[in-house]
């Protein structure tokens, strides 16, 4: 049963029922939504412009407050409803029905708030400064608990009205937060230097079943960015003066079942902080296509699973790295108060079951780069150890299928790789790894010196039980900088027996039980 009462009557009823201790219950622009509860009161008020009706029930720890936004409400009106939870007194649910909402200012959301937007609810950003939606930082003390328990479910969040402004922004920005879920939403059409979603210092975050696309610019940015709360340059915000910058990374993030396209990069990070690592990152079952550069770009990630994604028409499918050439501006000294973590001895990166197709090279000016299916980059100072690359299907790359550099104890197995311009698998400065059970065909462009597997500057590598069909020079090539590698039980076809395996036995290599049988 619904109860329609005046404000003063509602206040008395709520006080007697234990909902509130005074009569300061906020009521603003809303329409009704009935929630199942053993006790429920509904207020009905007439304001100057709209009828107002809300549903309230007693929750386990706080009042459950359910409000529906008036159709085509302004940002100010929506913010009034979000502000009900400014003091964190409710489990607030804000429902946005079908309509067009022209937003002239950033929306701020507080803890224990859920936004449920209908499929036809179009929220249009019409302001340059700030995000479409951000968590409130006015009481920030650092750490993961500034804002907790946020869900954004549904809606079309569109920045096309400002996409030509050439000023970076975000659609969604969450900083120092935990238990953040974004699902079933379409987020699109941002200007140059922008992200669609930024999670900075977020724990237990989930982005799922979303469609993300539309970028008007050439600067390389990620649609979904994971960031470290380092300073106002790395993590800009209209609320920067309230933010406690503490080098907090992301922890336990799941990104799954999303479609991302028409963007420079799909998912990842392009800056990092010395001694700080994003941890427990799961990127699974996403469709990433038509990207300028990287599908997934994981910079200083630990305990990360990249599984069962489909990546098409990009410059590099999966890029995992600890070091890069321009790190003077992207690998930053930690803040003085930061407790730095030691370099991991075991990064525990798993890249498994992904389908990667049609990787082209990225052109910047006159320079061409990438063109790889999977690229792993460590350095002598920061080796990227224990990377597992298995059961991936990689088809048609402008350069390498898999290229691993400074990644000791890597495991590369059961991959299907075909039609690579250079080596299907290239290993450099990566000792004590295993290459096994890979199915390789059309390896190396015809007439080139490439082939199936190429190895340099590496020792104690095991290469076994691979099937290689070569179109270029060598099935397996170990150059003069390699030592003590073991090459056994491989099947190689498409080249003369003298070119099937090139390995200098004087360097301590073991070569036996391969087909064809080769001694070099």
TL;DR?
This protein is mainly beta and about 525 residues long.
Overall mean confidence score, pLDDT: 89
What best-fitting shape do the alpha-carbon axes yield? elongated
Low-confidence segments, given as residue ranges, are: 1-53
Helix content: under 10%
- Tell me the radius of gyration: 27 Å
Structural class: mainly beta
Question: What is the overall number of helices?
Answer: 4
Give the end-to-end Cα distance, rounded to a whole number of Å. 88 Å
DSSP strand tally: 47
Characterization of this structure:
Helices cover 5% and strands 47% of the residues. With 520 residues, it is mainly beta. The protein has a 43-stranded mixed sheet that branches. The N terminus is likely disordered.
Q: Keyphrases for this structure?
A:
single chain, 520 residues, 43-stranded mixed sheet, two-stranded parallel ribbon, 4 helices, 47 strands, 47% strand
Describe the secondary structure blueprint for this structure.
Elements: E1 4-5, H1 7-16, E2 40-46, E3 51-58, E4 63-68, H2 75-82, E5 90-96, E6 99-103, E7 107-109, E8 113-125, E9 133-135, E10 147-158, E11 170-183, E12 186-191, E13 195-208, E14 211-216, E15 222-227, E16 251-256, E17 259-263, E18 265-268, E19 272-273, E20 278-284, E21 287-291, E22 294-299, E23 301-307, E24 310-314, E25 316-321, H3 327-330, E26 331-332, E27 349-352, E28 355-359, E29 362-364, E30 367-369, E31 372-377, E32 387-390, E33 393-397, E34 402-405, E35 411-413, E36 416-420, E37 425-428, E38 434-436, E39 439-443, E40 453-456, E41 462-464, E42 467-470, E43 476-478, E44 486-488, E45 491-493, H4 497-500, E46 501-502, E47 510-512
Parallel strand pairs: 1-2, 4-5, 5-8, 6-8, 7-9, 8-10, 9-11, 10-11, 10-12, 11-13, 12-14, 13-15, 13-16, 14-17, 15-18, 16-20, 17-21, 18-22, 19-26, 20-23, 21-24, 22-25, 23-27, 24-28, 25-31, 27-32, 28-33, 31-34, 32-35, 33-36, 34-37, 35-38, 36-39, 37-40, 38-41, 39-42, 40-43, 41-44, 42-45, 43-46, ...
Antiparallel strand pairs: 2-3, 3-4, 29-30
């Amino acid at each position: 049963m619904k109860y329609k009462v005046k404000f003063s009557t509602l206040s008395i009823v709520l006080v007697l029922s234990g909902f509130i201790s005074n009569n300061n219950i906020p009521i603003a622009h809303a329409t009704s939504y009935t929630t199942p509860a053993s006790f429920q009161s509904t207020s009905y008020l007439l304001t100057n412009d709209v009828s107002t009706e809300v549903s309230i029930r007693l929750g386990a720890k706080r009042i459950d407050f359910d409000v529906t936004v008036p159709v085509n409400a302004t940002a100010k009106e929506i913010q009034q409803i979000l502000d009900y939870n400014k003091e964190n007194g409710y489990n607030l649910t804000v429902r946005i029905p079908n309509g067009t909402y022209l937003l002239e200012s950033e929306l701020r959301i507080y803890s224990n708030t859920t936004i449920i937007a209908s499929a036809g609810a179009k929220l249009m950003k019409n302001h340059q400064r700030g995000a479409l939606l951000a968590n409130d930082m006015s009481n920030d003390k650092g750490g993961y608990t500034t804002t907790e328990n946020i869900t954004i479910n549904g809606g079309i969040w569109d920045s096309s009205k400002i996409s030509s402004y050439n000023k970076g922004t975000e659609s969604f920005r969450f900083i120092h937060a935990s238990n953040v879920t974004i699902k079933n939403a379409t987020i699109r059409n941002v200007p140059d230097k922008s992200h669609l979603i930024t999670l900075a210092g977020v724990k237990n975050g989930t982005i799922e079943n979303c469609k993300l696309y539309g970028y008007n610019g050439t600067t390389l940015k990620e649609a979904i960015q994971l960031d470290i709360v380092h300073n106002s340059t790395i993590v800009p915000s209209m609320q920067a003066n309230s933010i406690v910058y503490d080098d907090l990374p992301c922890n336990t993030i799941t990104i799954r079942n999303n479609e991302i396209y028409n963007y420079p990069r799909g998912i990842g990070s392009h800056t990092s902080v010395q001694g700080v690592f994003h941890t427990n990152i799961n990127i699974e079952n996403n469709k990433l296509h038509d990207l300028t550069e990287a599908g997934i770009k994981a910079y200083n990630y630990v305990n990360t699973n990249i599984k069962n994604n489909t990546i098409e028409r990009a410059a590099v499918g999966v890029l995992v790295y600890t070091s890069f050439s321009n790190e003077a501006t992207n690998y930053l000294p930690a803040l003085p108060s930061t407790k730095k973590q030691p370099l991991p001895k075991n990064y525990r990166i798993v890249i498994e079951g992904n389908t990667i197709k049609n990787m082209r090279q990225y052109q910047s000016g006159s320079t061409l780069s990438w063109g790889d299916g999977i690229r792993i980059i460590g350095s002598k100072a920061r080796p990227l150890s224990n990377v597992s690359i298995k059961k991936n299907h990689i088809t048609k790359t402008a350069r390498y299928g898999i290229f691993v550099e400074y990644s000791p104890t890597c495991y590369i197995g059961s991959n299907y790789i075909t039609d690579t311009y250079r080596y299907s698998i290239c290993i450099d400065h990566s000792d004590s790894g295993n290459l096994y059970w890979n199915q390789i065909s059309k390896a190396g462009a015809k007439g080139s010196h490439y082939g199936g597997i190429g190895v340099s500057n590496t020792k104690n590598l095991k290469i076994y039980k691979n099937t290689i069909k070569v179109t270029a020079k060598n099935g397996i090539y170990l150059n003069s900088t390699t030592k003590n590698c073991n090459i056994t039980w491989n099947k190689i076809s498409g080249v003369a027996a003298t070119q099937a395996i090139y390995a200098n036995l004087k360097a301590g290599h073991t070569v036996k039980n391969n087909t064809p049988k080769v001694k070099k």
